[in-house]
User: Fold these one by one.
Assistant:
Number 1:
Amino acid sequence: MQKRWIGFLALICVLQWLSGYYKLFGETSPQWCLIFITALAIHHGSLAGELFGFFLGLFVDVLSVQLFGGHCLIFTWVGYGVGRFKRQIDVSRTLSQMVLLFVISLIYGMLFALIYLISFHSFPLAMARTFVIQAFYNTLLAPLVFYWIEKFGLNSESSGLHYP
């Protein structure tokens, strides 16, 4: 069981790094970590979402040159919020998964912009365009990550990792 989690986390980190460093998706890359945290919080609850949000946020902060700690804070909030309200969210269908990730991606962009604005007293508009494009990428990739979690046994019934 632990090997699956470590392997899946390593895969997410590698995908995040490759898509950002090598520009696999063009100028803007999807937030693989954000998609994974959202899917994980849906399946395992707020505590798992917070923990993975914190550690994957640190990973993304180390990779990026912007606002150290911003991703860690936002991913932790997202993991907690999605896990807390998972009972109100039906993600059994692909369309609902995509809508959830689109909304979460826009919230992520707004929170990052707010933290950036508070820290630097300005916000580049080019970054706003990046967040919108990223939201579309995340939306398209959401069903893939949800499928991976189900296929590789990372759902709450088979993993033994379940938090309310």
Number 2:
Amino acid sequence: MMHTQGRTAGESPIALPPGAATTLPIEALSDLSTPWCVHAVKELDLARHMAHGGRTASDLAAAAGCNARILRIVLAHLARNGVFEETAPGRFALNDTARGLLDPSMRHRLGLDGLGEGFAEAWGTLLQLVRSGGAFQTDEETHSEFSGILDPLFSRTRIGAPPPEVPLVGGWEAVYTAVDVGGGTGEVLAGVLQAHTHLHGTLVDRPRVAAQASKMFEAAGVRSRAAIVGQSFFDPLPSGADVYLLCGVLNDWPDREAKAILCRCAEAARPLGRLVVLNSISAGDPPADVRVEALLLAGRRRTLVEFAGLAREARLIVAASTPYRNSLAVECAVA
């Protein structure tokens, strides 16, 4: 499962509103050198090496075990493009942009021996995607491979900063059980349980991801009210809960698989349970930006009309929709 907020790793660094004009030359818009230079300096951990002050390219090359002449060229190129600052000829320091490379998760997002390599390969398939609509990875096994890496990197919230109140018709007072389907490492469910102390929750996700949720629930002080079920959400789900949550899940999957997930939720929620879908449905037109999950995982964010069609096929009825962050929270009843 993928949980993303803000810009997704691997997304184009230039994001303009629809129809906005730009004076950037085509060479700048098609430049590959800058992103690859960013990958390289992250792989060499150069931000950490210069974290305590500016250093020369020679010093940095010695610390990182690389060629000083080529490194200076790379760093100078990045400095001209706003990453690092060349404080004197051949001497470089961190700026606000480069400090982002100190984030530990960037090692996985940008490193060329892991997720970064997958992103690079995926972007190379864009022409194929445009021509055929087919994706780089579509089967469940390879999808799980990528999303298993992405889950902890793109956590939907952080402990201490729970998600905004999840909207629910009639409120949460009469709700006693909730199941977070594809709940990842537990950020969203932990926030919901913190906000509603009478509530008991169950997190469902693949075993290797769900196993990480216990620490999250302990840190949030809700472990006694949180159960963890390690399984695929394509299999029958725990049944009989009052509310089922799908947060940032459906946008990871093409229509066939998204419908299958909705069918499992409807099956488990019968006869009186409800389903709430978050962070997957656009409030207006489909997003115009190109996101890496469309390449890696064949997913896409749907409009409310598109989602309602899938929901009907899964025997669900859209009962309410509410603005939620930059998308919609959509509540469904079982048909």
Number 3:
Amino acid sequence: MKTHIIKSDKDLKKYKDEYGYHIQGNAEFEYSAEITGKLLVDGYLEVKDGRFIEASGYIEAGGYIKAGWYIEAGMYIKAGWYIKAGRYIKAGGYIKAGWYIKAGEYIEAGWYIEDGRFIEASEYIEAGGYIKAGEYIEAGWYIEAGRYIKAGEYIEAGGYIKAGWYIKAGEYIEAGGYIEAGDTYGISAGLSITCKTTLSFGLNAYAGIKTWGVATDEEKTITCGRLIKGIVAHGILKETGMPGEPSMGKKVKIKVDDGQVIEGTLLE
């Protein structure tokens, strides 16, 4: 497949069609491009280090999409392989890739973010609809979706995890702050669910529902500072208290699998 080197808007005009631009081959941009309409690249799309690409319509490539700075589209961003940016990836519609989506800062979409393998950002991942990955979803700060968050393996955030509907992971769910799901849905994980502050969900929580063996007590433990809403339908609830609260002498309740609630006092 031929590789087209595009150094300026003048070079780009060669590929103009009635909807925007269509490059039949690979495209390597050596400048920051601001495009009116759509950009369709049959092969890969690469924007050199320190530069960005913007389109008022969509950006789509049959291979990968990579930019040293950022990638932004008014409609959607789609790649057959991966999407990667040094700073951020942002679309008014959706962001979708066959392999992975990764940004140095954040990933944001008005509709949804979906990938065959993983979605990763050092700051946050946010979508108005859903966030879905075949393997894992990981953010340094927070992960938030208007509908649901789902990963084949794990979901992890340094701050909080929040979804309007449900949160589901094949392995574990972990947040440095709080975890919150919608008023009419719950949370489920093949292994443990952990957050340092509050845990809230509309219906039920299921932890340790792995299908590849019998879950240990540790694997089916739901650990949080405080459960403020929802029912633990499967798993062991462990409330550790909110940050800053004294733990010694604190009254705790642990719900075991058969529904029995055990009350006790923390000694240390």
Number 4:
Amino acid sequence: MASRIQLIAALAIGLRGSSFFIGGSHDESWKNCRSFDPKEIITGCSAVIKSGEETDSKLAAAFNRRGLAYFHERDYDDSIADFNQALLKEPDYVAALTNRGLAYASKGAYDTAIKDYNRALELDPTFIDAFYDRGLSYESKRDHDRAIQDYDRALQFRPLDADCLVGRGTAYMRKGNYDRAFEDFDSAWKINPAYAVALNNRGLVYAHNGDYEHAIQEYDQTLRLHPDFRLAIGNRIIANARAGNYGRAATD
């Protein structure tokens, strides 16, 4: 799910207005609301919301961006509250529905999240993020087949999406189809050679097949790129132990 945090930077909002109020100019508040820093987003969007100068559409956008910033800060309750406000202003706001679903899923409320994704896809059947996020929720519910269906749909629109490929590969792996899973992890890695999860998961497939040498190579490469990736460290310990490399396992 962490990959969707970049939505904060992706939703651009134009500058509007020129009057002044506490916290600086209206333009400056919008500028902060559009920034890449969650704390600046919260400050700027809060000022915009309190200004009383915006249309419902612009207020919905500000609530949505502030909700994403709260999501980035793992404040899921305030995040959901802001998406609720965005949807009060714009009931058919597809991005806010999908983002609220993501926040609910982060709290473990997968069924509630899926309802939001369903509504978003009713409004826009081509909204790829809703397919991807719904796939994650189905996967969390261990409904691997529905998860795969959603990743398939997302990949029809965006075939080079490494996140969707890793998501689908993970679902295949949990279904026991390791060869199919490896294809997806390998494709994701070719798209993004620094994708830690894709490398780690390729290692898992090698380890499942008893090829610990290649599994360890995958974990080594993962950890060269991301030295603090604890999951890869744990997997390398297991692979080294099973390969009889007890010294390396002990070091890890």
